[in-house]
Each structure stands twice: as C-alpha cells, then as structure tokens.
User: Fold these one by one.
Assistant:
Number 1:
Amino acid sequence: MITEQSRNSKNILGLFLKGEVITTVAILVVLTYFLVSRGLPMVLTIIIDFAVFAIVTMSLNLETGFTGIPQFGRVLAVIAGAFAVGAIPGRIMAASMGLPWGLKYAKDSIHYQISPELTQVLANSWVFSLLFLIFCVTIAAASGAGIGWLTSRPAIRLKEAYLGISLLAFGDFFMWVGHNWEPLVGGSTAVYVPDPFRIFGGGRFQAVVIVIFLVAMLVYAYLNRLTSSPFGRSLKMIRDNEVSAAAAGKDITRIRTQSLVIGSMLAGVAGGLYVIYTGTVTAMGYSRLVWTFWPWAFMMLGGIGSTTGVLLGVMVLTIMRTMITVYRFQLFGFLMAWGINPLWLEYTLMGAVIIGVILFLPHGLVPEKVQPMLPAGRVKKLFSGGMAAKPR
Amino acid sequence: MAPWLATGLIYASALALTAGGITLLYMSTRTFNFAHASMATLGFYVVYSGAVLGGGVPYKYFPLAFLVGGVLGVICYYGLNRPLLRRGAVEITLMMSTLGYDLILLSVIQMYCDYLTFSRKLFPRRVSMNVFDFELFGVNAASVILPLVAIVFLTGLHLFLVKTKFGVAMRATIENPVLAGASGINSDRVYMSAWIIGGGMAALGGAAMSMAVTGTPVLGMNSIPFMFAGAILGGLHSLYGGILGGFVVGLTEYAGVFYLSQKFGPWVLGYRMGVPLLLMAATLLIFPRGLAGIPWAVLFGNLAGIAGKKRGAKA
Amino acid sequence: MLTINKLNAGYGKLQVLYDLSIEVPEKGITVVVGPNGAGKTTLLCSIMGIANVTSGEILFEGGSLQNLPTHLLAKKGISYVPQMKNVFADLSVRDNLQMAGYLLPFDEAKKKAEQMTEMFPVLKKFIDRKAVTLSGGERRMLAVAMGLMKNPKLMLLDELSTDLAPIIAEKVIMEVARLRDELGITILLVEQMAKRALEIGDTAYLLVSGGVKFAGKSLELLNEPELCNMYLGIKQPAAAQTLTEGGA
C-alpha cells in the first residue's frame, strides 16, 4: 500500500515538473514577452501559424498517433482543401456575375482583372461574406474527405513503409499537377481568392486570426471527444494489435477508412483556411517539407497519440521558428560574414528537434496516457464481487 | 544515340545507384533512409565544387563524392541508427530519425550555397553540369561514362558481396543476424559498412544525376520519391532488385515521357513525375509488398520449402 | 564448464526464466527437457546474449558472459545451433561453412570445412547448392557441421529433431552422441524428443515454467515415471518401452 501511494504522489509531482503544465507556463511567458516587446501583430502571427498547423498536426495525429497509419502524405489533403478553395468558390461567384469562369478563370491576365471585383462584392455584404466563408470551409472539408477516402483504398492493402512512401509520392505528384496545370490554380503564378474578411476593413487580420483560432479549438475539442469515445479506443486497438482487434470483432477496414476520411477532412479544412488567410494559392507553396514533415516534427515533439501534447508541440516549435526569424541578426549575425542567411537555421532546428525527440524524449512532451478500458473502481468491484456473471 | 536516350541512360544509372543504396540500407538496418536525398545533393555539390574550384573534368571528383557520402553514412550510423537499433526501435522511428538528419544536411547545403554565392561569386543554385562535360564518340561524355561508372561500380559491389569473406559475411548478417553473430561476425561492422556503401552510392548517384538534370539544392529532395519508387519496385529484399527497380523507374520516366510528349505534345513533360508513380502504384496494387511480395516460391513449385521455412517461429 | 546461477531472463517485459540454476559439466551431454513454453530455448538465448537477462550470472570457464556481444562468445569457443533459421538459406553450403568458420584463419577454415564434408558426405554432394534447397535433415546436418566448424569447447544445440521424420531425428541425435565420444565436446542439448535425448545424455535438467523441476543423471530422470509421464509424454518406464518399439 505504501509503495502504491508513494508512486501516486510521484506521478503528480512528475506531471507538474515535466508535462503540459511547465510547457504551457513557458509558452505563456514567452508570448507575454513578445506582446510587450514586439507588439500584438507579432503574437497574432504566431497564433495564426499555430492554429493552421495545429489543425494539420492534430489530423496527422489522429491518423498516425491513434490509428497507426504512416501518413507521409499529409500535404495531399491540405492541397485538396487549398486547391478546392482556390479553384471553386471564386469560379462560382464569377459565373453568377457573368464574368469569365471556365478554364480561363485562373489565367493570370484575366484573373488579375476579375478577382478584385469579386472581393468587392463580398466587402459590401455581411451575408455574402459569411456564406462564402462557410462554403469555402465546406468545400475544403469535402475535398479533403474525398482525397482521404481515395487514399484509404491503398491504405487498406499496403503495409507500413510501402504505404508511407506511396502517400509521400502522391502528395508530391499533386503539387506538380497544380504547378503544371494552369487552369486549376494558375500553375506557377498565384490565384487570388475572394476575401470574405475584407468586410472587417482594417481589422481583417485580427478577425482572421480569431476565426481560425476558434476553428482550431473546435477541432481540438472534437478530436478530444472522438478519441476518448469507443471509436477512439477502437483506433488504438487497431494500432496496437490488428489481429486482436479483428478477433474482438472490429471492422478494421471500415475504422481505418473512417480515421483517414476524418483526418484528411480536417487537414483539408486547414488548407482551405490557410488559403483564405493568405488570400492566394501558389501550388509550389504546398511542399512536402512544410505540410508533411513539419507536422511530423510537431507531433513527435508534442507526443504521438496525445492531442493536447500536439497542441503544445506546435506552439513550442512555432515560437522557436518565429524566434529564429526575429532574432536572426542578433543571435546568428556572425553567419552573415560568409553571406549565409540565418533563416536556414529553421531547417537545422527542425532536424535537431526530430533527432533530439527520438533520442532523448521518445514519448514527447506529453506522453500518451494509457487508459484502462474500464475504470479501476469498476474492475475492483468486478473482482471483489466474485466472478459471478454480472451484466456489463 | 538520341538525346533523350542519352540523358535517360544517365538518369536511370543515377537512380539505379541511389535505389540500390536505399535497398541495401533497408535490408541491413531496416531503415528507410530519407537522408538519401541530401546525401545525393551533397554528392552533386562535391563534384560541382571540385569542377568549379579545382578545375578539370567533373568525373575525377566522383570518388571524392563517394567518400563524402560514406562519411555522412558513418555519422548517421553511429549518431542515430546504432543507438536506435540497440533500443529496438520500430521502422517508422528509424525512418523519422533519418528525416531529421536529412533536414540538418539540407540546411548545411543551403548555407554552403549561400557561401559559394557570396564569397566565391558563383551561382550554385541552378547548375547545368553539362558545361563541364566534353564530347566522346559524338555524344556527351556523360552518357557514355556514367552508365559505365554505374556498371563498373555495381559489378564491383557484386563481386565484393559474392567473392570476399567480408562481403559474404554482410549477406549472412543481413539474412540472419542472430546466426551471424553466433558465428563470430561483428554485426556492428557490417552495418557500418552498409552505411558507408549506401551513403556512398547516394552521393555517387546524386553526382551522376546532376549530369542529366539541373543541379539545385533540392536536387535530392525532389527526386527522392523516384529513388524510393525504384527501391519499392525492386521489392526491398534484394539489392539487385533495387538496382534494377531504380534503372527501370529512371528509364521509363525518360522514355515514357518522351514517347507521350511526341504523341500528345510537350505539355506532358510537366507531369514527368506521374510515369514512375503509376508504375509503382500499379506494382503495389497488384503486389502490396513490391516485386519481392510475388510468391516466387509458389510460382516455381520446386522451391516450396522456402515458404514454410521463412514462416518459422522464433520459438 | 558453464555455470548459471539464479538467472532471471525473458523478452522485453515478459519474464520467462525464474531463478534458474544449471551446471554443465565438462565433456558430457547435458540434456534440458521440458514441456513447451518451459523456457528451454530462452535459456540458450540468454547464454548467447539474445534474450534479456535481468539478474543472475552466467559463467563460462570462470568468466562472466554477460554484457558480451554475441560475436565475442564465438571467440570464446561457444557455438550455438538455433532451432529455426540455423543456416544461411541464401548462401551456398560452401559459403555457409566458410561463415561458420569466420574467426578461423583461411587455411584452417578450409581444412576444417573439408573435415566437415567428410564427416557429413551429404554436404560434399551439395557443396555449391544454396542451403535453402536442402531437405530438412540435410539442413540440420549442415547446421551441426557449422556448429562444429568453430572448434567449439561447448556446443548449444536447440531442438535438433524438430520438423524431422522420426527416423532421421533419431539419427541426428545419435550423431550428437558421436560428437561427445569422438571429439570430446561438451554439449548442452535442448530436446523435444526427450526419451532418446535422455538415453544418450549424461546429466539432465527438467524445466517446467521457467524453473528446474529435476536435476540429476539423465537415466535417473527416465526412471521417474511420474515426471516422465506428466511433463515428457513418456508413458512407460524405460524397460517397458523397448517392448512396444519391438512391436512397432
């Protein structure tokens, strides 16, 4: 009994020292410092980067951390959402206003003339803006889910590395399609998206940040509910032991497909929101490095299989990346002597974080909590009450 | 020789080398090496720097590129791979660790390019290595020399693995580490050698590839899906399969795109990437474990014993 | 020669052996028998440094074997013939023998390989064939030959008779007796075919659920009808057994 108690107290202490608490405190301190020394826009930039990548990383965590699918093609669903928002809503508006909307819509000479007109319409009507935003998110979610369903087809058949590599390759392929097929999103030139936030005028940036942050929090709440539901337990069961999950009557194919569809849908939403935030789509911006590998780094730092951990991981790394950008001349100015741009240190940082986490912090900042299927009290009751059959 | 075939051969040889390296590393250490990308790019920059700063034909710097790749491999093995293997890490962890290493190497490459631009007044971010080439039998020397380099190197590797005691020991360790250890073979040394050879092949392949396509700091980063596609096509369980897979992917990419662009117009060139991917997808959809997943033993009934043996339990 | 004291070992979190103590005397066959899952193979794996040893000591000729990488054990004169995967399937018989004699100088390895092919003529016949094409019995012969290549002082043999037809299995086990008698090698034999093994063995250990249930002369174990019946599936005492065999 004594050992049991002492272990418990140690756990609580450990939680305070290591886990989410200390990281959160550190994050808040740094953010406050930024707010005081650099002003609000800086903090807002951090928050929007955080929110977008938080959604992507949480979706990755659902598929990889909870279901055990090596999702090396996260960029695929992000691209689906981004391209959909870049290509479809603007076209529909243009068509209804009698402007050119077909294959020529994305051609730069025409596009630069019509996109301000479209934005102007939205800037005059709250209703239109809201409807447009909702439509964008819906369409991003739908195309993300669609691509998720498509990738689930091979995902059922292929194992581990083979699946990861195939997904990675197809993510790249989609980027190149966007880059080369001009009618989609303008190829190598950018396509502007009508801006539903223009109606806020000078407060646009703040409004975008708040909306996207709220969406991220909604996704967080949703995923927390989802993963602690019986469905979440099924996911973990499949991840840990496919055979025993199948033996327990789980339909592995269906559950994996659902996980991929939900995850890809969320990633699609993130891609769509990011496009609305930046106002443009450039195919080459959706690289494997930024939209697949960085979310992986965030997830590994935060703790694979822990949604809260992922949020912290994204925040910590976003702050660190911003710090490199902000303090690059103060801290790494010596590199300039050789003409080296200190921004490359961002890559070094990401690489070092991945390696450091793998070697020294294999479970991340917030290790996944192993939850018993039944609450401990109930298990005790079951056993103390004898093995007499009790209905569950 | 038609230009597309000449370039295609260079490109295919380069992919054969890199895909072979990936397969070798996967077979020996279960590691899908993402760092192959930057190792290849660094191989290219070694040759480029040599040609620009040291002068002479680029080919004389190829051995140096191999050496640099080998050193990078050894660093990766001792710094990352070995501790993780000892810990019994799973495949995905091993894979991610090399991704971290790759990102660090990528930043080093970018910084080196900055340095070359600033201090040496060079333009290392878009390099056409052809300007350093000379003519041989009426074609670019590269299209004769590089396939030869690949063939000689791969033959040498084959002889090493079949004829030398240490080469056979490498094969033995890859097949059965426990028994090899009990026979007195130091698996540590075998894995280190695999990383030297694999890293060297990556660098050599990257150097060769830059003779066919524009050399950029993301040369390896952009072509790693093809390297992987080659390795997967080869089935990941035989070095020769990987080499062949890389060659097939490289050649179909060039020949296939050439053929299609003749037929449908030059816009096809933009979708170059699709050809090998379709090839890989088709293979994987029919045989989810690559060419090695084909039940050869069943197809050739007389070897039926293998199947039973391979499934043997650990007891 | 080999002393194991209070060994606790297993794989990962799973503990298989509990406070196991075994003594392998020099120049003799020590037979380890027991039902499935008793930890016989784990015992050999612990000696070879493949399983996780949590506590206890393993002494070979007075020196500890713990924390030595597997390849150094071969140097000390211990050779191990695993139950499964005991040959390099993808290598030729010749290369298999060469690999088994990895630590020997070139000439000596060659000479030794010739000795082996004389000792097991089958191997000579198939010297250039891949090991995977050999039959089960031939492969087992090759495995034993590979074990002998190292001039071992101690051989660990794991379930030589698995997968073999009874007649061949018996032949292989008799071969083990010959190794002791002619070459004077100390042998630790783990066997399913308990009766035969105990008949040729000198010392015997009966392992049950990770602990020693019986230790003594191997013939004594054969004369314990209760133990034999319960754990080894040997129904009658040794004397009665001969009758049935005659009948069959």
Number 2:
Amino acid sequence: MLLPSFYDFCCRVKTISGHKALEAIPGLLAGMNARRPLIVTDKGVAAVGLIGIVKKALGSKLKIGAIYDNVPVDSDYKVVDDAAKVYKKKGCDSIISIGGGSVIDTAKGINIVASLGSDTLLDYQGFGAVNRKLNPHVVIPTTAGTGSEMTLVAVIADPDRKIKMLFVSYFILPDIAVLDPRMTKTLPGFLTAATAMDAMTHACEAYFCLEKNPMSDGHAYRAIKLISDNLLKVVKNPGDMKGRLALANASALAGVAFSNSMVGVVHNLGHTIGALCHVPHGNAMSILLPYGMEYNLHKSGDIIGEILLPLGGAEIYASTPKKKRAEKVVELIRKMNQDLHDATGGRHPRFLKEITDRNGKQIVPHSMLPTIADCMMLDGARMSNPEEVLPADAILILEHAWEGTPLNRKKINKGGKKVKY
Amino acid sequence: MNINKYPEIVPGRKFLKEFYVGIMLWVVGRALQVAAKVDKEVKAELAKLPNNFTLRMMVAPEKAFPLFFYAKLLPSFVTDIGLLPYGIQMFLHKDKEGNIKYIGADPKGKKADLSVIFTSIEAAWLVLSFQESTATAYMHGRFVVEGDLPHSLTFVRALDIVEVFLLPKIISGLAVKRYPKWSEMSLMRKFWKRIVIYIRAFTIG
C-alpha cells in the first residue's frame, strides 16, 4: 500500500446513520446546548414533504425557531445574509440543513454570519477569516452524492461580481450528519443514478489523485464498494431502503475521502462544463469518469487497478492480470453507465452529446468544446491530477467524451517522472 | 521561585536557507517580469490576470526580512526597483497597461491582491530547491493562497513555463508535472529565451 511522504487528514463530523436516525437529533442538539434550530431548506425539498418527516421525527422536544425554504439552486451571499437575519430575529441557536449541496453550502454560510456576528458573508472572505468555532450545525442530506455534509468547503456565489466565492475552514465543517433513508426515498431513479455516480467520482478521484493517503483511501474504498453493490438495485427498485441507506453512507464516505484528497481532471472538466453549459454536475461526472481514468492510466495505472477489487468484486479482481486491472476498471465504469442508461429509460446520459434540456436541445454543443478547454485552466482541481492537463489535452478528452468513443491513449502527451505522492 | 529557571525560547534562524530562498524569489520575480515581455505564452497566461494587480510571494510569518545589512540603509525607491535581492518575499505588479513588473521585496505601502504564502522557511526551501514539484508542494500544503484561486493557477502555470526556460531539463523536470515535448516547445525557443531572460533579469529587466 502506498504511503505518501506527507499528508494531512481531518474529519470531525459525527455521523448518525440508520433507519429512524432523525429521531436522535433533539438529544444530540441538547448535548451541544442548542434548543432552537433554524431549518434551512429549498422549495423542492419542502414540496415533496420531507420537512414534515423531519418535524414529526423531532417531535415536541425541540422548538423550531423558523423554517427558511428560500434557498435557490445556485445560492448567493444575499440569500445567506437574508437567512442570517431570520436566524437572529427568531433567536435561533443552531441550524438544521435539509437538502442537497446548495442548501448545505448555504447553511454553512448562514452559520458563519450568524455565529461570527457580522451582517454579511462578504466580511468573511479570504484565508483565515473564519477563525473560531461556529454554532451547532446538523446536516440531513436529501441526495446521496454531494458529500457536502463532510466537507470543510462552502461555495457561494456573488452575483454582482459574477464569481463563486470559496470559503474553506475546518470551522465550517458541520457538527453532525444524519443519514436516514427516508430522506432520499423520493429521489427519482435518474437523479439517484447521477448523484451516486458523483459520489463514485469523488471516491475514485480521491483514490488516484495526488493527495491520496491511507486514511482517505479507506473511506474511498468502502464508498466504491457500497455504490457498486447497491446503485443499480436502488435504481431498479426505488423502495429498497437498505440500498438507499448504503448509498447515503457511500456519499458521506466519499465526501470524507475527497475532502482530504482532492479531485482531478474529471472534476476539473466537470466544473467547467457545469459553469459554461449548465450541465447537471452528476451527469458530467458519470460521463467523464472513465475518460479521466484513461487519461491517467500511464501515470497511476497501478493505483487505478486497485479500484477493481471494490468495484468488480474478488472474483473479477483475481481473474484479471495485474497489468489489465486498470483497463478493466474503466470498462466496468462504462458498463455501469450503460446499465444505468438502460435502467432509467435513457435518462442517464452516457456521452456529452446525449445531454439534452427539456425541449430535447443539446446542452453541450460541439462548438463549445474549445471554450471549455480554455476555461478549465482556471479550476483548482487541475492541480491534483497526476498528469498535467493543458487545453490541448482537455480537447482530446472532451472530443472523445462528446462522441462516446474510448480515449485514444496514443495521442496523450506523456512525459516527466512517475508520480510522487 | 526563581523565574529565570524558565527562560523564554527565542526562535532560531536558518540563515543559509533564508539567503537561498531570498535569492530565488528575486530570480523568480525578475525572470517573470522579463518572460512576460519576451515570451508569447507567458504573456498570454499573465494576461488573464486583471490590470492593476499586485501579487506577493512570501514566507510565513509575515515580515520584511532584510537579507543584507545595507538593505536597511537604502531608500525605498532603490529597493522598489528590485535590482537587489532584499528579503524573503517579493512583489509583482501588473499595471494599468498590462505590463508586469517586479517591484521589490519591501511590503511597505503595497497591498497584495493575491498572496502565495510558503508555510515555513523549510517549505519554501523544499519547493525552491526543487525537491518537490509545484503540484506536489501544493498537495502537501507547503504553500497556501490568499486571494482568488483562479489567479493563483494562472501564476503557477506561468511559473512552470519560466522554470522550463531557466533550468536544465534534469532540474526543471522535478519542478513541473510534464516537461514539454519538442512539439510543444522548440529547442530554439527554449535556449534563445533562456539566454535572453538570464541576461535581462540581471541587467535591464
């Protein structure tokens, strides 16, 4: 097993997982001396009745200060400031966030403003600005993919400057993550597929990118195993609560892994495609994951090959020669995408050209690829990829991912020393 | 109780490493200034930074750190020209016209839009003596970035190209993830730019 010459790892989030896990929240909050939480969520979550389930689970032991359900899909600092005002006026002392990545990130922002005393999140930009313990924050994820409940990052937009602000601090980490399968039960099959493949990408990239370490490897390994064992079953049978719980766990595990190991070219290109073409993040991840692995085979093939054991199982691992394991991993990920495509009636895209909007119009036109390749230079995930990624390399990957053909590995620019982890 | 039995511990200094890092930061700053003038790729990369932008590379903790005793005696307009290696930080400024200029090492009166901060003198030593590549150093937390991350990526990319110009393959191969092939950077371009950058960095800038 690879032991890097240097690494750091931190995970301080208490995790409660299981059926009826929500019922533990009042006791846990009381243990942190919090009795009046603000519930942060979005309209979609509220509309499918998930807030009702949480309220029922909390019972009469906890007084809810207020429910803030105005969080949009791409949250900005004005929403955060608005919600922080509600928090203060209603005399809340903690936050329960119920939703996906956007809601959780917004709640992290609200906690910064509410705990540190200013009126606006803009006061807390920059390294070291969030410098002390925040108020208790309980996260209840409703998608099994983002892993945001385990990360120390909050991404919040500033529409005036047209930028996404990144807040990074160990103090932003939530205190408690509650994984209850009731919260992901209503997630449609195609969204379950996309979000779980997002978690799969977190785990795989955490496993082979430059900041990998034994602690994050353990989390990534288990996440890959849980997803490969359960994803297809859950998509075919949405009522499979055991499978739902497994995916929620996998998402959290992958969150811990990539929060400590960073991600690579798949996220690099995925973020850029998402920003420029508004492609759902999970779809971009599932399409690009096999290409990102193929691109790094010559540098990290041995390590990618290790993923075959949790992904394919002991029999496939043992029957595949060591040299062929990494290629087999890529093949199995492609097969997984194909199976999900079939199981969702074609709603899980396999290539970039297959992603369409509601009117059937292509979201990623071929003419956008050069722009995507240029803009990906500004995404931080580029740094942690084992192989260098420049616009010419990005074009190579994007062309193949758009067409749906395996990457022509002879065309990859190779050079430099073996990766030093 | 004899309080003198419990003396205050004064942090030590690593003069040789400070000296080396100071010289290297000066070389990097001056070389970037020249490369932005003479090489199209570096120019195009640094063009992505906004105008009127100040970048700082430094070693934590924050301190103006005179390396030479005479640096203290010099007036600031001399040190600001940046002809002398002066301290273990350096400032690059992109003016309103988009020209890149090394503006010395004295932080007095300068406000950085982007700071690349080595977490310790040992971290700076590891990176600037090419024991760790820029990417590995970033992964190992040898430096942190204060400011917009995309700007720091632009800077690191420009730095990678300059390193290839300045150093022989055996050394710069350790610093960059992938050493450029001939098709990406011709021998003629590499050696010619190497000569020009060295001559101008140590003279007219």
